């Protein structure tokens, strides 16, 4: 075969390869066209399926309830303007339309003022605009507002005046108002108390400073708050003598007195206030340094018959010497528990150091207590309480003819602080004697095994459980 013929054959093959390549490209283009068409058809099918999905056919009132539960999530009580309910509005157009038509979803707002802001005027304008837009969607429904100042931030007085004006403008709609600010800032935000608050049910004023100070806001004077049921206040020297609050309406009261040895505390006879709180069901007390000039004979006892939750906290341990390991216990507060023993179901001891006999005597009176939080202080006093409580139960167990009063017989939940000195064995025995171990099934199995030989010989054996106490 000559060279000329070879060149002709090679040219024919190259032309054939080009034709095949062109055909492959056409085929690929067709495949791509079909794939694109398939995606479009699939999208249409998905949209059609969405139209017939149960969510689309769910009644509007049911969807509104679902949205309300999402916004009122227990894990996030205070709504953030950057989160719910705005996240729900990003799902689809119909959800967004429904979202903006439900005033109940826009009744709660939390705004925080961060530390280190460079332009407080611009920041305040932004926060106030958020308040206007947010609450405009809630129509005329009562609202809940949570405002907080970060620790260490110093908000200028003119900026606070703008915020105070906005709070005052919302007075007629406020249902819950929480202000966490420094005492100096809080003093500039109390104008709202001078106007009627017809819907206000909960008022909370808290000191946001991490360190105590001698600065205190003026006394709270509520001119009209007929719906107020919960009042919470916490700052340094808590003097309630000039407060004008409808104490008799309250069902929950939280008085946290941040006492400190670095200044002379102002005496506050909160017993006079408690004597006016006839309808209290929950009481939270933070007790500061005791005042030495109080005459015990002038103290009038107070009985709170409706209280079912009592939380006691001490911020200061007095007469403590770490080198000598001496302390003075806070037994003056235990009388509250004794007077509430008939209804008390929950109690919290936080950083209280009380001698074990006094604590045991107090707990022995709380027959209806179901929940107790017991956190001894960093000095690790009271850790012997576990062992003493166990010893008392052990005496009762051994001498049934001489009953020993049980400590908190109705207790269901016990929160303890664990440390390197916590007596693990004593705590375990305490739980064992409190609730006992159910060994009835093990006893039945043991008897069945030991009597099996007699059963095989025809013995009819019937074993039943006795009562839990038998």
Tell me what the structure shows.
The protein has 470 residues and is α/β, with parallel strands linked by helices. Helix 11 (384-398) runs parallel beside helix 12. Helices cover 36% and strands 14% of the residues. The longest helix is centred in the N-terminal third of the chain and has 49 residues, at 3-51. The protein contains 14 helices and eleven strands.
Summarize the structure.
This protein has 14 helices and eleven strands. The protein has 470 residues and is of the alpha/beta class. It has an eleven-stranded parallel sheet.
Strand count, sense and closure of the main sheet? 11 strands, parallel
Poorly predicted sequence stretches spanning 5 or more consecutive residues: 259-264, 289-293, 314-329
What is the N-to-C order of secondary-structure elements (H for helix, E for strand)? Answer: HHHHEHEHEHEEEHEEHEHEHEHHH
Estimate the helix proportion, in percent: 25-40%
Distance between the termini: 114 Å
Per DSSP, the total helix count is 14
The outline comes out as flat
> Tally of extended strands?
11
What is the overall pLDDT average? 75
- SS-based class: alpha/beta
Strand % is: 5-15%
- Largest sheet, spatial ordering of strands: 1-2-3-4-5-6-7-8-9-10-11
Radius of gyration based on Cα positions: 35 Å
């Amino acid at each position: 075969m000559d060279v000329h013929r070879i060149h002709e054959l090679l040219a024919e093959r190259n032309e054939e390869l080009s034709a095949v390549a062109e055909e492959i490209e056409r085929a690929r283009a067709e495949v791509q066209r079909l794939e694109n068409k398939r995606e479009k058809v699939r999208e249409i099918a998905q949209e059609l399926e969405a139209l017939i999905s149960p969510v689309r056919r769910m009644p509007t009132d049911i969807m509104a309830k679902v949205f309300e539960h999402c916004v009122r999530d227990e894990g996030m009580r205070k709504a953030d303007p950057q989160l719910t309910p705005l996240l729900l509005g990003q799902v689809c157009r119909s959800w967004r339309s429904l979202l903006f038509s439900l005033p109940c979803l826009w009744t709660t707002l939390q705004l925080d003022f961060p530390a280190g802001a460079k332009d407080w005027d611009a920041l305040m304008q932004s926060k106030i605009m958020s308040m206007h837009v947010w609450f405009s969607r809630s129509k005329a429904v009562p609202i809940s507002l949570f405002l907080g100042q970060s620790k260490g931030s110093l908000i200028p007085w003119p900026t606070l005046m703008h915020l105070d004006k906005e709070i005052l403008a919302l007075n007629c709609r406020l249902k819950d108002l929480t202000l966490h600010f420094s005492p100096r800032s809080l003093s500039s935000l109390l104008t709202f108390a001078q106007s009627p608050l017809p819907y206000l049910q909960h008022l909370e004023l808290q000191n946001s400073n991490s360190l105590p100070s001698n600065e205190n806001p003026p006394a709270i004077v509520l001119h009209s708050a007929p719906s107020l049921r919960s009042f919470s206040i916490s700052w340094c020297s808590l003097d309630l003598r000039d407060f004008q609050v409808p104490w008799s309406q309250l069902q929950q009261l939280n008085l946290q007195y941040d006492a400190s040895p670095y200044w002379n505390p102002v005496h506050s006879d909160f017993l006079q206030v408690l004597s006016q709180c006839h309808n209290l069901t929950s009481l939270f007390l933070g007790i500061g340094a005791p005042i030495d000039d109080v005459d015990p004979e002038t103290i009038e006892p107070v009985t709170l018959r409706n209280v079912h939750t009592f939380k006691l906290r001490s911020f200061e341990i007095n007469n403590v010497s770490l080198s000598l390991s001496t302390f003075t216990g806070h037994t003056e507060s235990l009388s509250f528990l004794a007077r509430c023993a008939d209804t008390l179901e929950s109690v919290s001891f936080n950083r209280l150091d009380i001698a074990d006999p006094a604590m045991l005597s107090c707990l022995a009176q709380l027959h209806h207590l179901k929940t107790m939080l017991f956190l001894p202080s960093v000095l690790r006093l009271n850790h012997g309480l576990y062992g003493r409580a166990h010893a008392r139960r052990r005496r009762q167990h051994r001498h049934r003819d001489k009953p020993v009063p049980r400590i908190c017989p109705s207790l269901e939940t016990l929160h303890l602080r664990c440390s390197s000195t916590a007596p693990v064995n004593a705590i375990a025995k305490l739980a064992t004697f409190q609730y006992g171990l159910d060994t009835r099934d093990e006893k039945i199995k043991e008897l069945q095994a030991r009597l099996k030989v007699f059963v095989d010989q025809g013995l009819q054996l019937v074993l039943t459980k006795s009562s839990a106490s038998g």
